[in-house]
Design brief:
- This protein is α+β, with helices and mostly antiparallel strands.
- It has four domains: 12-188, Sandwich (Immunoglobulin-like), CATH 2.60.40.1730; 190-274, 2-Layer Sandwich (Zincin-like), CATH 3.30.2010; 304-437, Neutral Protease Domain 2 (Neutral Protease, domain 2, Orthogonal Bundle); 443-515, Immunoglobulin-like (Sandwich).
- The chain has seven helices and 30 strands.
- It has helices at 220-237, 281-296, 312-330, 333-352, 374-407, 414-425, 434-437; strands spanning 7-8, 17-28, 33-43, 54-57, 62-68, 74-78, 81-85, 90-99, 109-113, 116-120, 140-147, 155-158, 161-166, 169-178, 185-188, 191-198, 204-211, 245-251, 258-259, 264-268, 305-306, 364-365, 411-412, 443-449, 452-456, 463-470, 476-484, 488-492, 501-504, 513-515.
- A seven-stranded mixed beta sheet has the order 5-8-3-2-11-14-13, with no helix packed on it. Strands 16-17-18-20-19 form a five-stranded mixed beta sheet, with helices on one face.
- Helix 1 crosses helix 2 (281-296).
- Bound molecules: ligand BES and zinc ion.
- Ligand BES binds next to strand 19, helix 2 and helix 3.
Length: 516
């Protein structure tokens, strides 16, 4: 066994080659699957003096055939991929690999669950399907053709819009360029609940929830949640859906809660199925939140994706913030906030003060799958929430608008996101960036001397401190947001009565510990 090597954020280099188009063909059998990938590569115009070689990731693959522009290429098989040599600047690589979903127990790549085929490609699962540039900054349009025994697998699904469907075969085309971690395929004998949603610009979207047949009666609430998510993202963020069809598939064997594959979300069945007779209020709220979360990724994650996996919080922190706002707008905002802050202070604060502490944007990783953490998700969402508090709703929306204008269809960084927020609002976030780069929960101190308030912190971070002031009867005299920065700062409240009471850190406006 070779020692696993760390990957460093500072070592990021753009890919020497990019991809125009990816055409995949899957032949699904009981004891093997054949995958043919026809991929059009071209040299990255932004890379100076690119080499004429290319390394493609691959894991547990059996190479059956390989052709470049119809000829045998110069290549070398390695244990983690395929080295191609003496390449032209532009070429079509056609590779056939044999894989074994029927014995794949890793819950990554193509595997079987309850007799059905399904995939999981984030973060590094696609390399278990074919040799490819398995990195989030290489985007391509995908065509996927699936063939399988019609009796066992009448339902054949992949990303995008359905081009052709006949018994035993289906072809899908996804016009939105995407990295391979958003690829998905499902094949099985599934029941479907169907509905439609008409977007505010008048496009009709087919909505489909696929489950094992005996579960079809438990899918109603998920469908209603999905429609609420579509409507809310239009209403609050002005964001519309962009394909003819949106599918959710529920499977029993799934590592995580759910996955935002373009147009074809795959869910752990516990976040889809609700028996109305036995499900609790919080079961319903959770289903709605996860359905919302994966739907909201369509813009924050899919249309604009991550340059590299160090930027994971770019999509997850922002999308958690969005799903929190979804639940807050539809239900009781204060209860949602109390629940989230409780989880943050118990779970994330503990992570941040223990041996696994890491920044919202880590500097290195050995195994990316270990970085889907409370810090990247929940603290990441708090950092986005602070930006929202600093800019206000209108300013935050202005920043997001600029972010989508600039970066739609691209793979970007957390710095790009903050830069868009900054430019759209003329707000300087330089002293804010420590929230992304520093681990640990800062302890702040607040001292009151005759209503002259001194706030101090261990470093020099910018953050919003919401407060209120009450008189001795408990009526509110004043409330607002202080902007803390620097090691120590003074705020003058001497205009207020001597016996007033301060209420600090309202709404938990920053993920800090208040030292008494
Ligand atoms: N992209 C993730 C799911 C994921 C992460 C799959 C890592 C594979 C590897 C998805 O958007 C997600 O964050 N899901 C959460 C639920 C969400 C409501 C926070 C999950 O699965 O726990
Ligand atoms: Zn997510």
């Amino acid at each position: 066994m070779s020692k696993p090597e760390a990957i460093y954020r500072q070592d990021y280099q753009p890919s020497d080659y990019l991809i125009h188009t990816t055409e995949l063909s899957f032949e699904l059998f009981e004891n093997e699957t054949l995958v043919t990938a026809k991929v059009h590569y071209y040299q990255n115009p932004k890379v100076k003096n690119p080499p004429n070689s290319l390394f493609l990731n691959g894991k547990n693959l059996e190479l059956i055939e390989i052709l470049i522009d119809g000829f045998q290429p110069d290549y070398q098989l390695k244990n983690d991929g395929l080295q191609l040599k003496n390449l032209p600047a532009d070429f079509v690589l056609e590779i056939t690999t044999k894989i074994h979903p029927e014995t794949n127990t890793s819950l990554n790549g193509l595997y079987k669950t309850s007799g059905n085929f399904c995939t999981q490609c984030e973060a590094h699962g696609f390399r278990q399907i074919t040799y490819y540039l398995d990195r989030p900054d290489v985007l391509s349009v995908f065509t996927t053709r699936i063939t399988a025994d019609f009796k066992r697998y009448p339902i054949l699904l992949s990303n995008g819009n359905l081009l052709e469907n006949q018994p035993g075969t289906a072809t899908w085309f996804d016009p939105h360029p995407k990295p391979c971690y958003l690829f998905a395929l499902v094949a099985g004998d599934l029941a479907v609940l169907q509905d439609t949603f008409t977007t505010k610009s008048g496009a009709e979207v087919a909505l489909k929830i696929y489950v094992e047949k005996h579960n079809i009666s438990k899918t109603k609430f998920a469908m209603e949640s999905l429609k609420r998510a579509f409507a809310w993202d239009e209403r609050r963020f002005g964001l519309e859906y962009d394909l003819e069809i949106y599918m959710i598939v529920a499977v029993d064997d799934f590592n995580m809660g759910a996955m935002e594959n373009k147009g074809l979300n795959i869910f752990n069945s516990k976040y889809v199925l609700a028996n109305p007779d036995t499900a609790t209020d919080s079961d319903f709220i959770n289903i709605e939140a996860v359905i919302g979360h994966e739907y909201f990724h369509n813009w924050t994650g899919n249309r604009v994706t991550c340059q590299d996996w160090f930027q994971l919080s770019l999509k997850e922190g922002l999308t958690v913030f969005r799903d929190q706002e979804f639940t807050s707008d539809l239900h009781a905002r204060s209860i949602k906030r109390i629940t989230d802050v409780k989880a943050l202070r118990t779970l994330q604060f503990a992570e941040d003060s223990g041996p696994m502490a890491h920044p919202v944007r880590p500097e290195s990783y050995i195994e990316m799958n270990n970085f889907y953490t409370m810090t990247v998700y929940e603290k990441g969402a708090e950092v986005v929430r602070m930006i929202h508090t600093l800019l206000g709703e209108a300013g935050f929306q202005r920043g997001l608008k600029l972010y989508f204008q600039r970066y739609d269809g691209q793979a970007v960084t957390i710095d790009d996101f903050v830069e868009a927020m900054s430019e759209a609002n003329n707000f300087d976030f330089a002293d804010f960036m420590a929230w992304y780069s520093t681990s640990g929960t800062p302890q702040i101190r607040i001292k009151n001397s005759a209503n002259k308030i001194t706030i101090s912190q261990p470093d020099e971070r910018l953050f919003p401190l919401k407060y209120g002031v009450l008189d001795c009867e408990g009526s509110e005299l004043e409330s607002g947001v202080l902007i803390m920065k620097g090691k120590q700062k003074q705020f003058d409240f001497s205009h207020l009565p001597a016996d007033c009471r301060f209420s600090w850190l309202r709404d938990f406006s920053a993920p800090v510990k208040l030292k008494p």
